[in-house]
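Hello again, I could really use a second opinion on something today. I've dropped the whole record in just underneath, so have a look.
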Amino acid sequence: MFEPMSNKIRFGVALAVLAAAHAAAAVRVWNYEVLEDAMRAVERPPLLPVVIAGARGGIFSGAVAVESSEPLRGLRAAVVPGVGREPRLPAGRAIVRYALPWEDGRPGGLDVLYEQPPAEVPVRGARALAGIWVTVEVPADAAPGVYGAELRIEAEGLPAAATPIELRVADWIVPDPQQWRTWAEMIQSPDTLAVEYGVPLWSERHWELIARSFRLISGTGSRVVYLPLLRHTNQGNAESMVRWIRGRDGALRPDYTIAERYLDLARRHLGEPKLVVLYAWDAYLVLSHRNTSYAERPQVDPNAGEYEKMLQRRAQQRWDLRQGGLTVTIVDEATGEVEDGFLPHYTAPDSRDLWAPVYAELRRRMRERGLEGAMALGMVSDMEPSKEEVEFLRDVSGGLPWAAHSHYQRTRGRPAPNRALKGIADIAYEAQVYRAEFQTNPDRARAHGWRAPELRAWLDRVNLLNGPALTARLMPEINITGAQRGIGRMGGDFWPALRDARGRRAPVFTRYPANQWRGLDLSNYFLAPGPDGALATARFENLREALQECEARIRIEEALLDPERRRRIGEPLAQRAQAALDERQRAMWRGVWYNEEHLAALSTLGAHGNARWPVEGIEQALPKAGHPLPAERGAREAVIRAAQEQGRAWFAASGWKERNAQLFALAGEVERAGR
């Protein structure tokens, strides 16, 4: 077990570190918060102990930065549990990673967490800068308390440096991610891995890369698996996972080998799926949308603007692809060659005989795995299948519900069964943009989105989650204290993998313009390409820690909202816990908008998902609350930028780790008292 570090040793080591830092002016080591952007830091604080606040059974991180005016060489670090003592950390519980920027600078900051030390950190903008992250997986049976270790750092030009690590473990056990109540949907991309690493689809190396991505994604509690029945999807799938074997007689028969192996790999490395989406419909099949019919091939208006021409060309591409039928992958039995093929449309006379046995077989295989109840059809976006297609898929699938990723809100207050799709089929899950609601002021009202009866999540359509790490840290709790159950449609390993002749990158879905969804295309991603597969990012680790914090909050709120449990824990503890949750909520929103007077005037905000969200919602609501912003655009934007920047800086220095430690301790106290 860990062993608490004495103050004498702690401060002795800190003084030695400071002396070493002064002796090596060319290379400096300083602390930064894991939710900050070290690249934008103006001050270099003196090196102090790395403090990590956590709870039993969770995963938590702390960081320092290493900076030099010359390229950094020989950088490496190690966690030393203790000298002349029993190990304070069980073997393998603490890892060191090296935070560096993306090669093209997007997303920003020291975001990519490399598992091996870099050969060299180049100078960017007059300095070489790297982060050293210490991530601790706390044993569930660890005794609560403060535990110590030492972080030792080496680099050319840096005398041997070390700083204490303080791990503060609260007496509460973080539930297994499989049991989390906060919804997180993070999607894996087989095609991104195949393109990035130059491996054939479904080769043994490809399966190894997929397994690695699933293992990382599992830490978010995401348990959604997509099995495309069509090829060239909006998610960038080049092939359908149910493939059609063309026999020597020319007849086609479905083959489930790829779909089954992918699903079983997910079960082994991701966790037991809560939703298995059979991807059976996409944008190119749309016949009408927003009062526009696509019964005939659209024309390009030569007098239209460039954006409108682009949309018209895309409509033509959809029309052209739709003429072939349903896009599937065909394998020639005699040669083994894989080709892009088509099957008749769902509305064709012979389609039922093709697809009814497929869905019956998929149901059987899901039933064998205990997953029949997790099955759903996809995908509903802003575009929807026709009434005839919905009826057909309802009939051949045995009445499976749908999953939706859309601007529109279809299920608010309408849990399945809801007949929310054409009045025919249920929508069991949706991630949506419009009419999301967020509660800024707990003094006026409180919301508990995590207990909404419908499975509905917020969708980031403008890449906010590729922004500052603090955004990833705040968004889960912002949603569950609003009207949503969590966050949906997040990309795992969806980084831009395609490269053009100039080395510029693009996502794999851009290969298939007929199935692009415009503002809903999946462009955020929480994993990064490493030398041997996907790597975690600073944003990923902040998201994971945020989800752990959400679970602690939910455990407390469950007790506060249950009259019998509240009676058992007693009003003094109940009121103390509620006050702490309210303070967290106020601090969270002050990290978004640094103006307490404005936030105090606001209650529930509805957001419309544009690039300034959630500031856009605040901006719209302030005049109604008697606090108008400047009318002139430039002045208004200046106020908004200042509020955002001040909010982020305030939050990082506001004692957020102390609030987390208090949250975890209260979760444990409430749990024990409410038994």
Summary: Residues 403 and 429 are 5 Å apart (CA to CA). Residues 7-173 form a domain with the Immunoglobulin-like fold (CATH 2.60.40.10).
